[in-house]
Design goal:
heterodimer, A: 12 helices, B: 320 residues, mainly alpha, MetI-like fold
């Protein structure tokens, strides 16, 4: 299998009043023909911006792809003309959006929206396009396709609309399908059906799939390989099974640990990743995950390169986080942090109690207000 | 790609006509209201709007059939509307002259009918012209934004800042030759600004919608996005403003004609008729009142219908 799409050092920034937001900052990965690639990461990590950069549909201004190359077959999508790009969109690269409720045009019939792309790219006449549209609707599992083709989107349920979106994206048998969180807006029961549909149709058409999601469960179910993104960087990339069995970046570890599990007790608390993603307006000089990382040391102030850590497995971390020694270090760190937090908490409680005593406010409103904004101010005091 | 040809989906039999297939499906017989039907149902629920529609239909029909209708009541000269058989001035209404005759013995009813033709024609055609210009300018400004938007909207602002009637008088005095076309052009020249602003704001909001981005990922060009994807979504407000614009244009025409800058004799419009009759208003009020009431009725009907359409076309109304 040859490479279908190869992204190298992609940089897409957004210009704001305060400066450039580094939404995608030097991303490189590739997709093989027919491969199903998952892209995971939390909101704002650059997944969708990467997808729109491939389509060259970054709103400009303010967005701009400043550097890098996107090789699609022989041609660099960042170099070709807009009209050549229009011939690729919808014909060779199809895209499925997150919210089927808003991504179908409310005033055009389903039939019009499917036949349009067929007429545009495949040169079909109205009758042929209509026939093909009915076939497509049948393929994606719309019952009574002959009748439904004249319906408007509002006459369809959410799952049905996503099926229509899939039919439109797949109408020209594209070589690559970009699915940007295709199931996020759907019912859980419908999610599985839609994923299965994307899976089976893309296999049938031999199309590669780039599945963007924040749901690791979705990735586990249907992708061959996973790219984990954080703060505009690729931080880990591995075959799906390998990633789940042997995560090598602290962020991936955290993601996997934060999945709620049925087999542990209900009383058990979830394990979130502490902190928030960095401000992309002023991205950290070193490892972007450093401020939240329990493995971090001074070495992390230098940006870690993506290094091979296994067969077909790369991660951007200075440490071998699967080594017992490292885990021991992290565990100690975690304990120390927990202890520190507990101390802060106790101090806060103490100060709060004393301040309430000294104030002895008869006004209940005031005491409620002071207790609600108490902790924030007190924590600051504790840090001093 | 080589394997894909083997897994072609089950295709429909070639010889079958798709439309035939559609009608043959039994479920198709199930009654389902189309989008158009829903709009009609909503519109008819508004009694005043329906009344407006009927008044307009009646007046339009009368104006259209004026030669036929008028043959029945009197003989006339089509160029001057002077009753050939007898032309005493200021006759009172009779079966012979339903609304009497005016100061030079022209049949008032005939002039109302023929004047209505002119007034309605001017109102409608200047509306079409203004809507076309307004939609084009508004769409370009809203879709492209930036410099294009700035430029087009400043032009619009400047036109809005001009004292409209004064300029119309000046322009029509110097350029208009009193023909229908020149009056239409003058009215349309200043009528598009409101529509342009409306369409611009619609486009500004609609272009950010996800379905536009979705259409873009399918390879649609800017022109296609504007005309096929965004414009139909703005159709409701445009139709409403078009309706209101007809009324406004008829008023503008009347004012122009009243001050002598509009339609010139021998053509008549309702505006010129009011103007002609103003000197005899105390003695023969019917001569000014009948065209005046016609203007009032038509404009009112257009406005009522516009209101009804506004409600019927509002996509966010859930009531069906």
């Amino acid at each position: 299998m040859g490479k279908l799409l190869e992204i190298t050092n992609l940089k897409t920034y957004f210009r704001t009043r305060e400066g450039w937001v580094h939404a995608v900052d030097g991303v490189s990965f590739s997709i093989d023909q027919g491969e199903k690639l998952g892209i995971v990461g939390e909101s704002g990590c650059g997944k969708s911006v990467t997808a729109l950069s491939i389509m060259r549909l970054i709103p400009h201004p303010p967005g701009e792809t400043l550097d890098g190359s996107i090789l699609f077959g022989e041609q660099d999508l960042l170099e070709i003309s807009e009209s050549a790009m229009r011939k690729i969109r919808g014909k060779q690269i199809g895209m499925i959006f997150q919210d089927p409720l808003t991504s179908l045009n409310p005033v055009l019939t389903i039939g019009y929206q499917i036949t349009e792309v067929l007429k545009l790219h495949m040169g079909l006449d109205t009758q042929q396009a209509k026939r093909r549209a009915i076939e497509l609707l049948r393929e994606v599992g719309i019952p009574e396709a002959e009748r439904r083709i004249n319906s408007y989107p509002h006459q369809f349920s959410g799952g049905m609309r996503q099926r229509v979106m899939i039919a439109i994206a797949l109408a020209c048998r594209p070589q690559l399908i970009i699915a940007d969180e295709p199931t996020t807006a759907l019912d859980v029961t419908v999610q599985a059906q839609i994923l299965e549909l994307i899976n089976s149709i893309s296999s049938e058409y031999n199309s590669a799939v780039m599945l963007i999601t924040h749901d690791l469960g979705v990735v586990a179910g249907m992708t061959d390989r996973v790219v984990v993104m954080y703060a505009g960087h690729v931080i880990e990339m591995a075959p799906t099974d390998e990633l789940f069995a042997n995560p090598r970046h602290p962020y991936t570890l955290g993601l996997l640990a934060s999945i709620p599990r049925l087999d542990i007790g209900r009383q058990e608390e979830l394990t979130p990743i502490e902190g928030a993603p960095p401000d992309l307006l002023h991205p950290p000089q070193g490892c972007p995950f450093m401020p939240r990382c329990i493995f971090a040391t001074n070495q992390c102030k230098a940006p870690p390169p993506l290094r091979a850590v296994g067969n077909n497995h790369v991660a951007a971390c200075w440490y071998d986080v699967n080594q017992p020694a490292e885990q021991q270090r992290a565990a100690t760190r975690r304990e120390a942090r927990a202890h520190h937090l507990a101390m802060l908490d106790a101090t806060a409680q103490a100060i709060l109690a004393s301040s309430q005593d000294s104030r002895a406010a008869p006004d209940s409103d005031e005491s409620a207000a002071s207790s609600s904004d108490g902790p924030a101010t007190v924590t600051k005091a504790g840090e001093d | 790609m080589s394997t894909s040809s083997q897994v072609m989906p089950p295709s429909l039999p070639e010889e079958e006509n798709i439309d035939e297939l559609l009608t043959l499906t039994p479920q198709l017989a199930r009654k389902r209201r189309s989008q158009f039907r829903i709009i009609v149902d909503r519109f008819t629920r508004n009694r005043l709007a329906v009344a407006g529609f009927f008044v307009l239909a009646l007046m339009g029909l009368a104006a259209l059939l004026a030669p036929l209708l008028y043959h029945a009541t009197a003989t006339y000269d089509p160029s001057t509307y002077i009753n050939l058989r007898e032309s005493p001035a200021f006759q009172v209404p009779s079966w012979q002259h339903l609304l009497g005759t005016d100061d030079v013995g022209r049949d008032e009813m005939a002039r109302i009918l023929y004047g209505g033709r002119v007034s309605l024609l001017i109102g409608l055609s200047s509306m079409f012209m203004a809507i076309f210009v307004g939609v084009t300018i508004g769409a370009l400004a809203g879709y492209f934004g930036g410099i294009v938007d700035n430029l087009l909207m400043r032009v619009t602002d400047i036109i809005l800042a001009i004292p409209l009637y004064l300029l119309l008088f000046v322009l029509s005095a110097s350029f208009s030759n009193g023909s229908i076309f020149s009056v239409v052009l003058l009215i349309a020249l200043f009528g598009w600004t409101y529509t342009a602003r409306l369409v611009r704001s619609e486009f500004l909001a609609l272009k950010e919608r996800e379905f536009v981005m979705a259409a873009r990922t399918l390879g649609a060009s800017n022109l296609r996005l504007m005309v096929r994807h965004i414009l139909p979504n703005a159709a409701g407000p445009i139709i409403v403003s078009a309706t209101l614009l007809v009324g406004a244009n008829i008023i503008t025409e009347s004012i122009l004609s009243f001050f002598g800058f509009g339609i010139q004799v021998p053509l008549a419009s309702w505006g010129t008729m009011v103007s002609d009759a103003k000197d005899y208003f105390l003695t023969h009020p019917i001569l000014a009142l009948s065209p005046g009431i016609c203007i009032l009725l038509v404009v009112l009907s257009f406005n009522l219908m516009g209101d009804g359409l506004r409600d019927a076309l509002d996509p966010y109304l859930t009531e069906r």
